[in-house]
Amino acid sequence: MANAAKKEVGIELPPLKIDLMEVTLIGDSPLIVHAWSPKAKREMLDKQMKAAKGAKEAKDPKADFEASMYRLADGGYGFPSVAFKAAAVTAGTSVAGITKIQARQAFHILGEDADIRGAFDGSVSRVNLCRIEGGAPQMREDMVRVGMGTADLRYRAEFPKWHTKILVRFNQNVLSPPQILNLLNTGGFAVGVGEWRPEKDGQYGLFHVATERDMEGLS
Asked: How many whole angstroms separate alpha carbon 83 and alpha carbon 90?
């Protein structure tokens, strides 16, 4: 019947099966970090605000080294957790049966929140960092090409030996723990994290999921 009341149909959504898994990642090659320094962000903001340009400051290698690091609230060292997820997601193209879309939507990597001072007075940005352990960083000097091929020296922090403990929050309806560990292992070998990683034609920032033997060596 044309005038018959339409029957309402309820929509049932299958529940998400969310779980947590703690994973330790062991560095297989040095990790080079390069956070945006307050100085670089100020220069960018001044240019966008069309502020008067002053004389160029003298290079301070030690200050550049210190500014290249991500710091946690207690003074410890960190690295963006999203970088480890990006490595695993990119590795999805090399793992049979898993697409990048599945990997991107199926899990998150959690670390510790930290506030980083912005270029504009009073502004901050909150980032999630994985704590980097294993030893103090050392200053690294590299010659790079900028602009029209002009040579420049860059001073950044490098962690020769490192490891990090991450917390993975994942949907078991999409990926299983072994699949996630496989993505992390593949990402650590094929993609890496930090500067000059394999994804960028380098060999730094390699890592693997810690084995029981690895864990014995860390304790």
From this structure: 11
Q: pLDDT tens across 25-64, in order?
A: 999 999 999 998 777 777 787 778 777 676 677 889 999 9
Domains of the chain: which residue ranges? 19-44+69-138+159-214
- Would you give the end-to-end CA distance of the chain in angstroms? 75
The count of other CB atoms within 10 Å of the CB of residue 153 is 11
Task: Work out the widest C-alpha separation in the chain, in whole angstroms.
Answer: 84
The 8-class DSSP code of residue 92 comes to: G
- Counting Cβ atoms within 10 Å, is residue 110 exposed (0-12), middle (13-18) or buried (19+)? middle
Report the predicted TM-score, pTM, of the whole model to 2 decimal places.
0.86
Topology of domain 19-44+69-138+159-214, CATH: Alpha-Beta Plaits (3.30.70)
